[in-house]
Design goal:
By secondary structure, the protein is α+β, with helices and mostly antiparallel strands. 30% of the residues lie in helices and 35% in strands. The chain is elongated and about 80 Å long. It starts with a helix and ends with a strand.
Length: 297
């Protein structure tokens, strides 16, 4: 393994025993170690990723030319690289969890709170700064089961959800934002105004308008049991969720997509699911692989 690869893996703390021995034999090993020990608390304010790339390029160039000033330059470059390593690996790494179409997953937060992530969703949080900055960024849909005594914020493009120790579901999709509280207490901030939700309460923003909803009677969201259930929701939202769960494209012909729909569909059988959304509206469907057409009978 060449010099720059050894240095790069050393910065990543990823050297195996054989590579570590090779690294110790480098001419500038002692200098690198001294720089590392002296910079444990150093936090740079420049673009360290670019500096690391410059370091690797410079090392390659200097190895080719073998000029006499390589050693002092390496010391300076190593300083930048160590700064990058310390800064990047201790302060900036976010944990990002994404789900694809027709996929769900489970996430455990640093305080042991659990998150169930629905299809085509995106969750970001920082493990390193969790105790000082308890913030989760969400795009899509997730069910949160919060550990006793814990609190944090769920930030979305539409509004912020403040957790007071509870179980709740958040949906943040295009022109659709909904929070349902199943246990405990949750605060929803929208347009700088906070609304407190108790068990069974919900908060829905649809196409920029606050929509009143009936009391929620379920103990958890239906999608956790592989079903999507809707109560007086525009049919276009039902179609979008169907596409996410089955990874298909649906075309509507002569159908009013704003018509309100009440019903549900399973995530386990596409034909049964299609009948569940078609029959109540007197629709028929044509299915060709991943393309589906819904139209009037």
């Amino acid at each position: 393994m060449n010099r720059e690869d050894l240095i790069s893996k050393w910065l990543d703390n990823n050297l195996n025993p054989q590579e570590l021995e090779a690294f110790k034999k480098l001419e500038d090993y002692d200098d690198l170690i001294r720089l590392n020990n002296g910079l444990q608390n150093f936090k740079p304010e420049y673009n360290t990723k670019i500096e690391l790339n410059n370091l690797m390029s410079s090392i390659k160039k200097e190895q080719r030319t073998q000029q006499s000033w390589f050693k002092p330059f390496l010391k300076i470059a190593a300083l930048l690289a160590i700064c990058f390593s310390i800064y990047y690996y201790t302060t900036t790494i976010d944990t990002t969890v994404t789900t694809q179409l027709a996929q769900k997953t489970e996430v455990s937060l640093p305080d042991t709170s659990s998150v169930s992530l629905n299809a085509k969703s995106y969750l970001v949080y920082n493990k390193k700064s969790w105790h000082n900055n308890r913030t989760v960024t969400l795009k899509g849909e997730a069910f949160f089961k919060v550990a006793k005594g814990s609190s944090f914020n769920v930030v979305t493009d539409t509004g912020k959800v403040t957790v007071y120790g509870t179980e709740f579901n958040v949906i943040q999709r295009h022109n659709y934002f909904e929070v349902i509280c199943y246990e405990g207490l949750v605060g929803v901030t929208y347009n700088s105004q906070e609304t407190k939700l108790k068990p069974g309460d919900s908060f829905l923003i649809l196409d920029g308008k606050i929509i009143a909803k009936e009391k929620e009677t379920r103990q958890s969201p239906s999608w956790l049991n592989n079903e999507s259930e809707f109560k007086s929701i525009p049919f276009k939202q039902v179609i979008k969720e169907f596409e996410r769960q089955y990874d298909v494209a649906i075309t509507l012909k002569d159908i009013d997509s704003t018509k309100l729909f009440t019903g549900k569909f399973t995530h386990n059988d596409i034909d049964i699911a299609l009948k569940s959304i078609a029959v109540p509206l007197n629709l028929m469907y044509l299915k060709d692989n991943k393309s589906i057409v819904l139209k009037r009978e």
